[in-house]
Amino acid sequence: MKKFSVVALAIGSILLLFFAVFSHQKLAGESHYITSEKCASCHQLQHASWQQTLHPKIFIPVTQDSDILGDFSKPDPAVTFKKEDIKFVVGSKWEQVYVHMVDGEYYPLTAKWMVMQKKWVPYKVKDWHETPMTKKCNGCHTTGFDPASGKFLEFGVGCESCHGPGSKHAARRQQTQSSGCALCHDRMKPGDAGGKDIVRTVAPSVCGQCHTRGKNSETGDYAAGAFDFPVSTKPGDDISKNFKEKVAKNDTEQKFWWGYGISKDRHQEYADWNNSKHAKALANLQESTAKRGPSCSQGERGDQCMSCHSADYHLAKKGSKPTLDTARYGVTCVSCHEPHGLDSQAHDETTNKCGNCHMANLASRAGDKAQKPHSPCPAGQVGCADCHMPRTVKTGGFYSLRSHAFRIVPPQASQQEDIPNSCQNSGCHKDKPLAWAIGAFDKHYPEAADKLLKADRN
Known about the structure:
The protein has about 450 residues and is of the alpha+beta class. Among the domains are: about 60-135, no CATH class; about 300-365, no CATH class. The chain contains 18 helices and eleven strands. It has helices at about 1-25, 35-40, 45-50, 135, 140, 160-165, 165-175, 205-210, 270-275, 280-290, 300-310, 310-315, 335, 350-365, 385-390, 410-415, 435-445, 450-455; strands spanning about 60, 90, 95-100, 105-115, 120, 140-145, 155, 215, 245, 390-395, 400. The strands form four sheets. A five-stranded antiparallel sheet has the order 1-2-3-4-5, with no helix packed on it. Strands 6-7 form a two-stranded antiparallel sheet. It has a two-stranded antiparallel sheet with strand order 8-9.
């Protein structure tokens, strides 16, 4: 019996050693992509919620008839292909682009379906062959994209699009949770991130890597302008190092921006935000504090200021919050958008989301001695976004997306450049003529239009 115990112990030790070597090999070298399904084994709640967002549906292979939203029940002159020709679809909310393979490359078919307008429109009829998705789209529409081969690991925007390759994170989780590894490693506490083996940041560039337009800069083996998205860039990196963004001042034909520097085309939320006061919120607080003294950054008052002026402060756990000097970001994307879809207020267009930081403005017009209401519209019928984030961006065939410049667009701007304005394109006064909107705006906000237009021009 004693001999058997010794043998069993030896075999157990060998197996444990083999498991340890195998486990440690997973942590060696560069981390690689493992797909969102692997993340779901530990992060069930986030994964289930993420699946209900638009991100995983942005580019998918057709697996069932319901994936295709376009109406093929009657002929349409714009549609020159059959339903069975569609192998992949892009989009599902505003419009849907159809894709097939030609010589191993993804290309769009020549008509797209406007989901909300329920109609077909021609799409890249003459230049479809100039839109290879490997160069134009897949860096943002897939996860684990390799610019060298054009291959990717997962359709759609998955966990690792924002968190980076997850193999080491998953291996460390397995290592610290298994009974064998626990002999040497402390068990990972619930909710522990597992060290620095995964990207966890509130940096706006995580969203900006796809929510902006431009061309890749020359880097390594990739010529400048070869891709319409950043390459050789990890989530959270400064994308300007490897990516040349399109900017309003160079858009002489005003294809992507209105004359006031406000986006008119989609995928430019990052560019709008970057020029907004939200982006400068922390820097402005730091500058203001330097002038007023430390009383503005310490104690309860400092906590209140930082909660609104800094995303990394607001979202950090208690006990690990940065100081005014160590905080890095102002009001970033995740200040308003919970990226996993867990926040029911993520697209709340009432005052709830903005009111967390702008409560004083909701009560009255700042600096107005007469203390007029902040908005002349009936309470409950208009939200902050209606005026400060007007629908100036076109997708789905109409101006359906909100601006992220956080600027009021007065009706006078529509008169000058035909840009949709805050009063008439928010769902409130579509039935009113422009002259009425201009008069009503001037009546409630005397001289404000001139100041707004001058500020936007500068």
